[in-house]
Amino acid sequence: MQESKIIAFVGYSGSGKTTLITNIIKILSQKGYKIGTIKHTHHDFEIDKPGKDSYLHFRSGSYASMIISNEKMAFVKKNEHLDIKLLFQKYFSDCDLLIIEGFKDYNIPKILVHRKEIKKESLLDSLNMVIAIASDEKLNTNIPNFDINDILNIANFIEKEFIIKNKHASLEKP
Length: 174
Known about the structure:
Structural class: alpha/beta
CATH superfamily: P-loop containing nucleotide triphosphate hydrolases
Shape: globular
Order of helices and strands: EHEHEEHEEEEH
Number of domains: 1
CATH topology: Rossmann fold
Distance between the termini: 15 Å
CATH class: Alpha Beta
Strand content: 15-25%
């Protein structure tokens, strides 16, 4: 697995990460790329409806449970260790790119999503591997700064740096 197939979008709650990600997914998907996503949360969550069979399976003590139809599937498993690279290998290896929302402390390339109206200290100095910034203001740094509303240029940057470079690298290997 090549790490260059994984990128994270990080920023404070309300900064526009989800909106930016969904718009980038639309652009890259329309170009024919397979995009996978992982959303990190600090809260417990349910993907199934209480009272339904698959919900009851997991809640009764099943270590792993899957619900599947002809069109999609959902898999729930007790989580003991978050390893992004392992998750990529197991579940997203057929994707051209894995976009992650969150995981700011992980050693993966990141785009910092920043809004000036969120009156908190910039995350830029506390993060590693920030390769670009999407913001509604220019930050004083040598890292590429994109206007947060310039979705097409951000998507093109990601395509060039993560998808096209990765395809060329895999063609060059013996």
